[in-house]
Structure formats: structure tokens, C-alpha cells
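Subject: Predicted fold for lipid-A-disaccharide synthase, 459 residues

User T.R. writes:
Posting the sequence so we have a shared reference for the thread.
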Amino acid sequence: MSIRNAGNRVVYVVAGEASGDAIGSKLIRALQRQAPGCTFRGVGGPQMTRQGQFQSLFPMHELSFMGLTEVIPKLWKTLGHLRAVAADIRACQPDAVITIDSKGFTFRLLRILNGRGWLYHGLRLLGDVDATPVRASTTLVHYVAPSTWAYTHKYKKVAATAAGLASLFDHMLVLLPFEAPLFQPTGDTRTCVTFVGHPALEDFGDAHALFRSHDEQNVPAAWQAAFAASRLGPSEWLPAVASPALQAHAVHRCLAAEGQRAPDEAPWTICALVGSRENEVRQTVAVVRAAIDLYTRQLSRPEVRVLFPTISAVAPLLERELSGWAVPHEIHVADDARSKQALYQASNVAVAVSGTVVLETTLAVLPTVVVYRANRLTEVAASALARVRHVSLPNILAARELVPEVLFSRCTPTNVAAALRCRPADQTVAGHCADEPSAQRHAAMDVRWPSALDAAAPK
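User M.O. replies:
I've generated the C-alpha cells; pasting them so everyone works from the same file.
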């Protein structure tokens, strides 16, 4: 999509959860720099709102739910939101509509804007939508590809999926390097998909001042040799295209930062990332509380504190869930990358619900245990249909468990506490040795740097 500088352009952005809000914020900021006359409307959270010139049509957290059975109670309200967003788009006639992730909502919205699907025809019969599809006059872009590659039944039909998505919107922006060729329709001469890099890598590069061009020769040879010696083996997921010197520099910057963590006499700090959706928090926080209770009883240190980074929409729920808990804890509203990185730096170990935060803690050299709970129906379906053996991105990329995962019915206080007790050099709860943090970070960085970093080399 290109935004012309002439005139006042309207860009409609729709995000449905915290990770999408972060991406939308970066996107709005970048478009503001390139086309200062742009006006933004849509659905988003606090990070998008802070960029200015944006006000959400309704609270974004009302779209933040997932799972096979979690969607059903929200169905009627979601239909109302779809009608409201479609009507608002028709009213403001934007030059572009950019939907971000949250495919359960955004793909239905895109079908309505294309004048397709049972939902569009049902709303049309009710007189709730205009008969003219928006696609004829507006550029449609989707940001973040669906995880088709993660499921056996979906991967078998990926060619048909790619063609279907290309008919749904004009362009797709993807986070992982293998997704661009995967979703490019066979035989289509136009470029339908562009790889733009993962936002967690962008935040990491920004935090370590890696967006500047430097002399690659200044990277100590010992750093590069150590990095090369600990590289991961071949994997279908890892492109290994980022500069080795750049990655070596970043690894050692992180190791230096790890040495600056809290001294031994300070309280042992646990970072508990229990989710950005209300249903995730409700499913996870009780297990995490009980696991930390078990874990702290066996710690040699008498002082322990727990940090709960969260978003503003979930903070009140978290306060209620943690009310009366005896373990010293702090709830921090961390709606931006810098705030979260400060909390990671202040922590000794983390327990995190599977998602983008696992990539963030891995890059921050913070030993992490990945947890995920869901109802039994969701667990059975996921186990039967999954093409990948792991759920966290570092493990998927490395094709082995670098970061311990305690999932579904195994996600009990006893198992989570056992995994937390495992330090990088010790045995994991699964009975095998965990890799050193640098190996985890190598896998994380092979998501690939954003293009701005490709030509850079560290000081």
C-alpha cells in the first residue's frame, strides 16, 4: 500500500488484542512520518491511541478472546461489533483498511467489506449494510498471517488458502520469513505478501541501538567465534539470514545486561505474564499463584517478589484475582515495549502464557517457563490437528524444546513449580537438559531482523 502525500488520507486500522495494538501503534507512527496528513480511525488499544489522531470505535478488549468454546458466549456481541465497524468504514470511506491479526474477527469483517459470505448477505437482508462492496473503492491490507503452517489439515490446503486470502484483500504483511513464499499464490504475477519482520525483534534492536550502521570489523573475533560455535542445527524454519556479527553483538550485549540483574541480596524476582485476554488470565492466574507458592517454599532465599506486567484493560481483573495473596507482588500496567523490558531486566525468572511475550523474554535473557491452559475440547482438538510439536516461537524455530513448555492438562501447579526450579544448567521437568540462554536467543533472533537491520553491523 502506498499513501500519497497530497490531500488528507484516511487510514482505518483494526486491532483486536494487545499484540495487535503494539503493531498498530508502530504502523501509525511510521505512516505519520511518511504522510503527516493522514487521519486514523478504527479499533485499537492504548498504544494506538497514544500515537494521537486515533480514537477507538469501542474498547478493543471486547474482541480479546480465543479458543473453540470461549467464542460462543461472545458471539452476539461480536456480530454487533462487526456491524458497527462495517458501518463506520462505509461512513468514513477510508483510502485503506488495515486489519491486524485477530482473524476470527478481522477475516469476517473483510468478507463483509468484499460483499461475500453468509454474514454479509444476512446483514444485507436486514438492511444493516450497503449493497456495494467496499473493496471496489478501498485498499484492503491484512497484517500477520494466519498460522496455517502450524496445523496438518490446514497446511495440506495452503495453496488454496493463499489464493483465497489474495481474493480477500490486496496485500498481506507477515512476521516470519517463511510465510512470504508460503502465502504467495501460485501463478500470481503480483506480489501479494511482504515479509516485514517481527515486532519483538524491532523492539529488541531499538533497545540495543542496533538500527545504526556500524563497522562490522569492530566486533571482537572471540564473540563471533563463540556465537558460531553455539549455532543451532538445521531446521526447516530457520533462514539464518541475519548478519552473524550483528547477532553476536546483540547476544553479548544481552549477556552483559544479564550480569547487571539484581544482586544476590535483593529479593528473588519472578515475572508472571499470565495473558492479555480476560479468559487467559482467569484460566491461568490460579495455577501460577499455586505454582509460585510451591516454588518459593523450596527456594533458599527468604525474600521473594512477583511482578505482573499487564495491560490496562486486564489490570482490574488481575487485582481481584490476586487479592489477599500472601506472596509480595506488584501489578504493573506495561502497555509499551520499554516498560516491559524494564520489568524483564528486574526479574530473575519468568512464567509466561504462550505468545509474543515468550520471544520477548528469550531475547531479554530471562529464563522462562511457558504455560498454557484451555478447556478439554480445545486441548483434544489442538493435539489432534497440530503439525508442530511446540507452541512457543523459539521452540518452533529450533524444532526442539529450548524453552520448557507446560501445556494443557500438564499445566498443574506441581509441574509449573518443577519447571521453574530448573535453572539453565539443570535438568528440566521433562528429563532433558535445557540449553543455555544464548542458544534460545539464537533461535529467537532467527525470526530475522527487520529489513532496516539487514545492512547494519554493530560497533
